[in-house]
Amino acid sequence: VPDTVVNPISGPLPCGFCGWCGEADCELTMKVLSRSVQWSTQCPHMEPFQYGSANKGSDNRPCRNVPVICTLC
Fold first, then answer.
1. What are the angstrom distances between the C-alpha of 63 and each of 5, 16, 38, 58, 60?
2. Which H or E run contains 29?
3. Tens digit of pLDDT for each residue in 37-54?
4. pTM more than 0.70
């Protein structure tokens, strides 16, 4: 099955939705609240996702493929 790539992936930090690097619209911002995490982006190829349920993990599925807040930035 051939993959359909919207844009060629480039640069060290490509957008997780479209693959572009360094586009201002693709910046992902996150805010940690007391019981949840809010995120936003202006990427035209953004797809909604459930951050909370993906971040819980389980014994059978410990991997958590979710954006994280970089403590170095």
1. 25, 17, 21, 8, 9
2. strand 29-32
3. 788 888 888 887 766 666
4. no
The tokens describing 23, both together, are 């586009």
Strands 29-32 and 37-40: antiparallel
Enter the tokens of residue 51: 């951050």
CA dihedral 41, 47, 48, 49 (to 10 degrees): -100
Q: Is the pLDDT of residue 19 over 70?
A: yes
Token pair of 31, please? 């805010």
Distance CA 15, CA 66 (A): 13
**DSSP type of residue 16:** T
Helix/strand/coil percent split, the chain, to 5: 10, 15, 75
